[in-house]
Write a structure and sequence with these properties.
Organism: Rhynchospora breviuscula
Helix content: 40-55%
Shape: globular
Strand content: under 5%
Distance between the termini: 51 Å
Order of helices and strands: HEHHEHHH
Protein name: Copia protein
Number of helices: 6
Radius of gyration: 20 Å
């Protein structure tokens, strides 16, 4: 989350330099309720000491209303297609949501070839 928050902050600064100000909090969708809770909860627990620096950064951004961390169900987390091995059904659902097509699918080539004739 800290890495993504840094990237979002960087993008926001670039947009500001291009005179495109962002006045609403940027959304960083997260399917991990524990991470969301730690990022927004100012009380640290003993078992989270090793991630304290990252948590401070995220918490600062959340409290400044620069970033929101809305919950998204794991099966709706589009980033999973790039980071995890998924079961075929979940993979196909995400592919459909992203609008991806298989450029090597022979049936697709056939429809393009027929249009040229």
């Amino acid at each position: 989350m800290a890495s993504t928050a840094s990237e979002l902050t960087w993008i926001k600064k670039i947009l500001k330099d291009l005179h495109i100000p962002i006045h609403t909090p940027m959304k960083m969708f997260c399917d991990n309720n524990s991470a969301r809770h730690i990022a927004s909860n100012p009380v640290f627990h003993e078992r989270t000491k090793h991630i304290e620096v990252d948590c401070h950064y995220i918490r600062e951004k959340v409290q400044a209303k620069e970033i929101e961390t809305p919950y998204v169900k794991s099966e709706d987390q589009l980033a999973d297609i790039f980071t995890k091995g998924l079961i075929p059904k979940t993979f196909e659902n995400i592919v459909d949501k992203l609008g991806l097509i298989d450029i090597y699918n022979p049936s697709l080539r056939g429809s393009v070839e027929n249009k040229n004739e």
